[in-house]
Amino acid sequence: MGYMRQGGGNSYRGGSSYGRGGSRGGYGSSRGGGIDSMKLPAKDWSRAELPKFQKNFYREHPDITFLTDEQVVEWRTKHEIKVFGRNIPRPIKHFEQANLPSYLLVEIQKAGFKEPTPIQCQGWSMALSGRDVIGVAMTGSGKTLGFLLPAIVQINAQPLLRAGDGPIALIVAPTRELAQQIKKEVDKFGRTSQLKNSCCYGGAPKRDQAAKLRAGVDILIATPGRLIDFMKSETTNMKRVTYLVLDEADRMLDMGFKPQIEQIVSQIRPDRQVLMFSATWPKEVDAMANGFFYNKEDILKVVVGSEEIKANANITQHIEIMADWYAKTKKLREIVREVEQVRGKLIVFCATKRGCEDLAYELQQDGLGAEAIHGDKDQWQRDEVLAHFKSGVCSIMVATDVASRGIHVNDITHVLNFDMANNTEDYVHRIGRTGRAGKTGIAYTFITKRDSKKAPGLVKVMDAAGQVVSAALRKMAESGSYFASQKRGKWGGGSRGGGRGGRGGKKQGGYSRFAAY
Q1: Is residue 14 part of a domain?
Q2: Do 457 and 427 lie in a common domain?
Q3: Which of 21, 343, 408, 431 is the most core-located residue (most Cβ within 10 A)?
Q4: Cα dihedral 382, 384, 387, 389 sign
Q5: What radius of gyration, in Å, describes the C-alpha atoms of the chain?
Q6: CB of 371 within 8 A of CB of 377?
């Protein structure tokens, strides 16, 4: 194909050389450096002479062209695909119909994928056509490849990097765990093209990350704060970026990252291609996102399932009403025996870092392979725990919500919410650690009378996923609804930032978004 860079060794005409700088640094947080007096100055793109680049690579396969409009609608309906926009490309059904280069099809085959997921079927035809895209699909549905493969195609059609050039594709993620997970997929699928990539996030030394950026990378995966740090120090620049991805876009915009994202986007050419992928897309996020697109009137949007919070139907949800800590730990041991019988893996979620450590210690005292992961651990410790969990050195990982998004271990069989999540979204993302890639999973949740105000939202999620709801839980939900009605008509559900919320509305550290849970 005309846009294939064979082996990454071809020489291209054109390209440009940009100034390079760079400083070395120590440590920084993933959210640092964004909102202070040293903001990045917005660029005046009206006077810039921007080299042209190709966006549209999509050629509809004859088998897709042959379908009638009714057949396309029927197929989308069957797979719960809803589309919005003008001149929407038809979805593909098989990998060979996506007009992907042969080298990517080889990597797909090596990965063992049989058929594309619904978000890939519709998302690839949209992204390869060069349009701005919003993709909404549940956790574990293949969104990463949905934006990654079109990025590789676009990069391979551009001139090779020259000294001082920044990345061509930029993928921004809210957490280092998610950024690291995306990097693994980039390593795998960018290998054939010899694409260079790097991952930048806070909580790790800047020196090694900066060295890779100075050497030049085609794809950069980064958290907002650390990326801004490197842009301020001129360690890298965004002048070559033509492909911008915001992964878990709803979380970034709702967590207060918007000012940082605005700074980053101001340094990127305005005719960039922008893709936002997420598991949910609430209306308030939709309004915040509009300012980042090149042409708001030409956005394509694909929703697989629901835009609102929805649990994976492949996960069997069990809710256990508990009286106290003793009852919880007794049931926990029963669940551990169940996991051992199937030689599975279990993630246990706790509300606090101390709770994680205490529970992991108790399990270790019982002779079980359990390790704790939370925000107070150094990055190398978190990496070590995750590596042990993935390899099977330990089969139980006790975690705070640091592991609820971005940590993808495909053979997790069970999830336990030892403590209830703060809100509906966190609950769905917690249990979404199992039942990935088309597999089934089991999720247990312990709920106490103190959690009664969370029960209505929990019941709503279970009903939407076709789960069996016990009479006791429904009764608790009714009392929870009554409790909520006495609190200004709705219950806010706690903030993203953790801790216990106020009485709905905005509170320090995050936003209370869900009325029922």
Answers
A1: no
A2: yes
A3: 431
A4: negative
A5: 23
A6: no
Q: Please name the amino acid found at residue 137.
A: A
The amino acid present at 26, given as its one-letter code, is G
Q: Clarify whether residues 176 and 286 are in a common domain.
A: yes
Name the residue among 181, 154, 173, 127 with its Cα closest to residue 278. Answer: 173
Q: Which range of residues forms the domain containing residue 400? A: 315-511
Percent of the chain scoring above 70 in pLDDT = 83
Cα distances (angstroms) measured from residue 215 to each of 64, 166, 235, 268, 321:
42, 9, 10, 20, 55
| Residue 311 near residue 464 (C-beta atoms within 8 A) | yes
Q: Return the SS3 of 270.
A: coil
Q: Are residues 352 and 459 in the same domain?
A: yes
Q: How many domains does the chain have?
A: 2
Among the three residues 270, 304, 338, which one is the final residue of a domain in this structure? 304
User: How many C-alpha atoms does 382 have within 13 Å on its Cβ side?
Assistant: 19
Q: Quick check: 275 pLDDT over 60?
A: yes
Burial of 497 (0-12, 13-18, 19+ CB in 10 A): middle
Strand partners, 54: none
pLDDT tens-digit profile of 16-50?
A: 333 333 333 333 334 444 344 467 887 888 788 88
Using the Cα atoms of residue 345, residue 348, residue 353 and residue 356 in order, give the sign of their dihedral. Answer: negative
Residues 236 and 322 in one domain: no
Three-class DSSP category at 320: strand
3-state secondary structure of 427: helix
- The owner of tokens 């730990």 is 329
Q: Are the C-beta atoms of residues 303 and 281 closer than 8 Å to each other?
A: yes
482-513 tens-digit pLDDT = 445 544 433 333 333 333 333 333 333 333 32
Residue that wins the pLDDT comparison between 433 and 154? 154
Residues 210, 230 contacting (CB under 8 angstroms): yes
Residue 360 included in any domain: yes
Directed axis angle between helix 176-190 and helix 143-156, to 10°? 50
Shared domain check, 415 and 328: yes
- Return the beta strands (E) in 271-327 as ranges: 273-278, 300-304, 315-321
Angstrom distance (rounded) from CA 318 to CA 321: 10
Give, to the nearest 10 degrees, the angle between helix 325-341 and helix 353-365. 60
Where a domain ends, among 241, 271, 304? 304
CATH of residue 195: 3.40.50.300
Q: State pTM to two decimals.
A: 0.69
Question: Is 76 within the bounds of a domain?
Answer: no
Q: Please state, as a whole number, how many other Cβ atoms lie within 10 Å of the Cβ of residue 297.
A: 7
182 and 294 inside one domain: yes
pLDDT of residue 309: 72
Q: Is residue 1 part of a domain?
A: no
Do residues 143 and 194 make contact, with C-beta atoms less than 8 angstroms apart?
A: no
Q: DSSP states of 205-266 as a string? A: -HHHHHHHHHH--SEEEE-HHHHHHHHHTTS---TT--EEEEETHHHHHHTT-HHHHHHHHH
Beta strands 273-278; 243-247: pairing state: parallel
Q: Are residues 178 and 274 in the same domain?
A: yes
> Does residue 340 sit in the same domain as residue 458?
yes
